[in-house]
Specification:
Elements (H helix, E strand, L loop, with lengths): L7 H26 L6 E2 L2 E6 L13 E6 L4 E5 L1 H4 L11 H11 L6 H5 L4 H15 L4 H4 L2 H13 L1 H11 L14 E5 L14 E5 H7 L4 H11 L7 H8 L3
Antiparallel strand pairs: 1-2, 2-3, 3-4, 5-6
Helix pairs in contact: 5-7, 8-11
């Protein structure tokens, strides 16, 4: 049997090492406990941690990028998702937007009606474009609620509108100009100045850029002009549709 004599310094080093290992284990468990990726809170699902330089403020610690059931995104502090504060965030704010919309809009819409449109922001864009075109703050559609709903539903599912809408979403960070050139804009196929009506069969969505370029031409006149002058742009609806169709 051999007797091994361990010096005091060796024992102290071993104790220090053990303490370091234990602290690292605790830190790992703590970090793992606060990895909120894929956590679901109400209508929100956590996507990833927000980099420090992209936090809305530096006063709430970590923020998490979340996607809402409505399709919207938001950056939420850790404590608002873990129940460690007096407030828990359960949506991107779309519920508040819907309630505010119902309280201030001239049109009569129920919760059930609004809930059928998963992308509330898309619904709201169509609504605002329609109300602006009608004039008089939407009083017309207050008295013609069924017509309003028909137009909203048509464009919400319309292939051309959705192509322009998706094009706009992919260009929002690019177009930092006075005009949001890619934004969907409600156009009269036959302009009001030429007898065009505010009805569904005379409405279409173009980009803001193309709508401004078209001015008071009919769509037939505008297409003829583009063909004769060989005028082309990525912001024209035919180009957007070709990209969407993979041509």
């Amino acid at each position: 049997m051999r007797l091994i004599i361990v010096g005091q310094s060796s024992i102290m080093n071993f104790v220090r090492f053990s303490i370091i290992i234990e602290n690292l284990r605790r830190l790992y468990k703590l970090a793992k406990a606060y990895d909120l990726t894929n956590k679901v809170v109400g209508k929100l699902r956590v996507i990833s941690k927000v980099p420090i330089n992209e936090r809305p403020t530096q006063t709430h610690g970590n923020y998490w990028l979340c996607v809402c059931e409505c399709g919207g995104t938001c950056k939420v502090p850790t404590t608002y998702l873990t129940g460690n504060s007096n407030y828990t965030q359960t949506s991107c704010g779309c519920d508040r937007k819907k309630k505010a919309f119902q309280a201030t809009s001239y049109v009569d819409v129920s919760d059930e009606y609004l809930n059928q449109y998963e992308d509330f922001e898309k619904f709201l864009l169509i609504h605002k474009a329609l109300i602006r075109t009608s004039g008089n703050d939407g009083q017309y559609y207050k008295n013609n609620n069924n017509e309003y709903k028909q137009i909203i539903d048509y464009f919400y599912h319309d292939e051309q509108f959705n192509a322009v809408y998706d094009f706009w979403l992919s260009h929002q960070l690019v177009d930092e100009t006075f005009y949001d050139w890619a934004k969907p804009s409600l156009d009269h196929i036959t302009p009001s100045s030429k007898g065009g009506t505010n009805t569904l069969n005379n409405f279409q969505f173009l980009t803001t850029f193309e709508n401004l370029a078209k001015r008071d031409m009919t769509m037939a006149e505008w297409n003829e002009f583009k063909q004769k002058t060989n005028t082309q742009s990525d912001y024209f609806v035919e180009s957007i549709m070709k990209v969407r169709e993979g041509q």
